[in-house]
Amino acid sequence: MRRPTLAALCLLCTLLTLLPVASVPAKTVRYVSDSLEVPLRAGASLRHRIVRMLPSGTQVEVLETDTDKGFALVRTADGTVQGWLPNQYLMETPSARTALGTMQTEFDRVRSENASLKERLDTLTTQKVDAETSFSQLSSDNHRLAQELATIRRTAANAIAIDQQNKDLQERVVNLERELQIVQQENQSLADRSNRDWFLLGAGVLVSGVLVGLILPRLRVQRRSRWGEL
Q1: Is the pTM value of this prediction over 0.90?
Q2: What angle do CA 33, 38, 39 make, to 5 degrees?
Q3: Are residues 128 and 139 in the same domain?
Q4: Cα dist. 141→97, 122, 134 in Å?
Q5: DSSP-derived secondary structure for 198-230
Q6: What is the DSSP secondary structure assignment for residue 21, as one 8-state letter?
Q7: Is residue 181 a part of any domain in this protein?
């Protein structure tokens, strides 16, 4: 068996160099490492022209990887730019700067939400104090109204009793007036009888006087006649 010559080995190496690099398609999401900017090149080497400078933290989609050259074909998340960059600049997680910005944004959101909740808590506390004050005032008003109602009920009961007493007194007055009328009628009747009796007595005296006046002269004439006969 013949051993390959040096020229053959060189030719073989050249052919291998010219062969297309085996690529592994992938859809894995990666992030540009935490560097200021990373050049995105048109090919898998540092000799190719720079297509764009990608800021650290830029999200890209890995389309191919060349493990021999240490480059990866990537495309930006918006799909507008595609190119090669070294694998060392790719990370599975966002850069610390991006993560810090995200955390800061989340922190600001939580702090704003916390401030809003505190403000809401203060409002609810104020409303609670106002409600307790209103409840105390309503309780006081309820107690006062209950006392006034009790007083009104007592007054109404007294008014009913007084009204009943007035009715009783009115009935007694009517009875007394009736009795007074009866007494007045009896007094009038007695007065009329007394006047009649006095009238009859006076008439009797008058008649007696007339009779005495008529009889007495005759008695005197008779006595004188008798004395004259003697």
Answers
A1: no
A2: 150
A3: yes
A4: 64, 28, 10
A5: HHHHHHHHHHHHHHHHHHHHHHHHHHHHHHHH-
A6: P
A7: no
Task: Locate 185 and state its tokens.
Answer: 């009628």
Same domain (yes/no): 108, 65: no
Residue 109's Cβ-count burial label (10 Å; 0-12, 13-18, 19+) is exposed
Task: Show Cβ contacts of residue 99 under 8 Å, excluding neighbours closer than 6 positions.
Answer: 93
Residues in CB range of 168: below 8 A, 6 or more apart: none
DSSP reduced 3-state for 160: helix
Radius of gyration for the chain, computed over Cα atoms and rounded to the nearest angstrom:
72
The burial of 173, by beta-carbon neighbours within 10 Å (0-12 exposed, 13-18 middle, 19 or more buried), is given as exposed
What domain range is 135 assigned to? 95-173
**pLDDT tens-digit readout, 124-178:** 988 888 888 888 888 888 888 888 888 888 877 777 888 788 888 888 888 888 8
Q: Tokens for 219? A: 């008695």
